[in-house]
Amino acid sequence: MIEYFLHTGLHKTGTKFFQHKVFPNLSEDDFEYNPVKLSQYICDLMKAEDEDLDLVYTAIAKEKKILAAKGNRKILISREVMSGDLFSFYSGYKERYSRLHTAFPEATIICSLRYQVDWIVSCYRETVHEHNYQSIGQFLGLEKGDEKFVKANIKNLDWAGIVEHLLDLFGPSKVKFFFFEDFKRNKKAMVDKISKILAVNNIEITEDGDSIPNRGYSAFSINLSILRYDIFRLLRL
């Protein structure tokens, strides 16, 4: 019997830390981490047009049979694409998670959340890193700005809806939520909690510096305290 674990992100919640410094250290005797074909089919599933869905579902089912033929193993897939596009603030999440459930109804979902205000600031910082030099108001579409830069609609941000939809689809016992703030406070404790979900002994952490990459933004000054306050006010409207 194959057990499936889908680590869906979200973006900006320490996902890269687990993808590069934790999950690759799982025992290859017990786990297959991000199997190439199945991971690609999941990407295809998230992006497929409606008329192509059956083809993708068929490809996923076929690949699952191939993996099952290898014997009892656990499959862990960690890809933020399963959550969607962070710069759209995950609009259309119901369709994406419903597709995921159709393909993997038996899966355990691992999802990490973050205080929305700080999450929005982090998304904005990412756009600046990608050379979208605009104000937070322009990024959120509240001020007129250069249309060539990426825009987000704060009305699409519905984390309560994401939580409710995942629970409705997979069931409370199959959805595990974590918080970025806890991860920042104690990475080892978070790794231990995820180890228990995967039913393995504490997973080794690659010791090449466990801090989250800190990118420079010298080309564009960002006053984080002001941004957080402005976004907090917007979320209360």
Short description:
The chain is an alpha/beta fold and 237 residues long. The protein has helices at residues 15-21, 36-47, 53-68, 93-103, 116-129, 136-139, 159-170, 180-185, 187-197, 224-236; strands at residues 3-9, 31-33, 74-78, 108-113, 175-179. Helix 5 crosses helix 10.
Structure in words:
- With 237 residues, the protein is of the alpha/beta class.
- The protein has helices at 15-21, 36-47, 53-68, 93-103, 116-129, 136-139, 159-170, 180-185, 187-197, 224-236; strands at 3-9, 31-33, 74-78, 108-113, 175-179.
- It has a five-stranded parallel beta sheet with strand order 2-3-1-4-5, with helices on both faces.
- The longest helix is centred in the N-terminal third of the chain and has 16 residues, at 53-68.
- The protein starts with a strand and ends with a helix.
